[in-house]
Structures are given as structure tokens and as C-alpha cells.
Amino acid sequence: MPNESSVMQVVAHHVETGATTMYKVDAASAVARYPDEWSLKPWSQEDRSAARERRKAAHDKEVADAKAANLPLPAPLPEYVEPTDAEKAAMSEDEKARAEALALVKAADEKEAKEKVEADKLAAARALLNTAPPQPDPHVRRPLAGAAKALVEAKERRLAKEREEAAKAAIYAEDERRKAANLPALTDEEKAAMANKTG
Length: 199
Prior knowledge:
Number of domains: 2
Order of helices and strands: HEEHEHHHH
Shape: elongated
Distance between the termini: 76 Å
Number of helices: 6
Radius of gyration: 48 Å
Largest sheet: 3 strands, antiparallel
Number of strands: 3
Mean pLDDT: 86
């Protein structure tokens, strides 16, 4: 499984102790809170000297303020030890090696992550091929088609014809009854009502 932490790491540079590997969020916090101690790029000699002077000036002010307020004095700044030429060379080589190592690990982890995505896709494809395709449910009601539809439509036409004939017969019988009783003949509205009732 890819080492996700390596993708979130950077090389940060302390003004005195040199390069170290940190999480991005920790490095960003250190640089924001202590800009005269931490940087995301190697310190030049000029920047290092200026940072030390600012730190000393800030510390001197803290000491003066503590004395004026009769408070405990802040801890002294760590004594700067000038590295030898050999130590400087070793520190420079270490910074370079750390940067190269981090880049190598990131590239490897990114490659592994991509390979895992492809492997997951392949596994999903294999799983799909091992399942049965969707099938029609024989219990689901569907619209009639073909011969079954034709039979139903023929039955509906026959029933409609029978209802029509029954309505005509009922109207004729009522007309005859009224004639025999010397009653007014059926109006069109009454015939329509009887046809609808019979239908």
C-alpha cells in the first residue's frame, strides 16, 4: 500500500541545525511562527546572519522587558557553533540527499497509487464478469403484445358490440311500451342516457 505520509512531507531547513524532513503542515506552521528559524529553502549565509541578528535583538528586548517587569528572564539563545568546512560539506550533502530521497519516495508512492487504482478497476471488472446479467422478471406485469394482445382487443370489440346491441334493444322496447301506453316517445337525451346506462 502506498505510503501516503511521504506525499505530505517536505524538507524544511533550520537556521542552525540544517535540513530535516517534516509534514507539510508542520513545516508551514514552523515557517509562519518562527521565520527567523525555519525556511522551506536552504539558508544563504547572508540570510542566516540576518536571521541571527533579528533573533538576538528580539531576545535582548524580551530580557529587558522581563527585567523591567521583575519577571523571570527568558531562556538564553542556544550558542551558535560555527561548523567546520567538513561539517558544512556534510550538511550540504545531507540536504541534497534528503531532497533526492524525498522525491524518489514520492514518485514511487505515486506510481504505486496509480497501480492500485488500475488493480481495483481490474478486480471490479473480473467481479462483474463473474455475475449473471440482468434477466426479465416473469412475475412483473407487462403490456400485452402479439397474439395475446390481438385476442384481448377482439374480446373488447365483441363486448362493445354486445353492449351496443343491448342498448338498441332496450331503447326499442321502451319506445314500443310507450306507444302502447299512448305515452310520448323517447327524446334524444333519454335515448342517450339509456345507451350510456346499458353500456
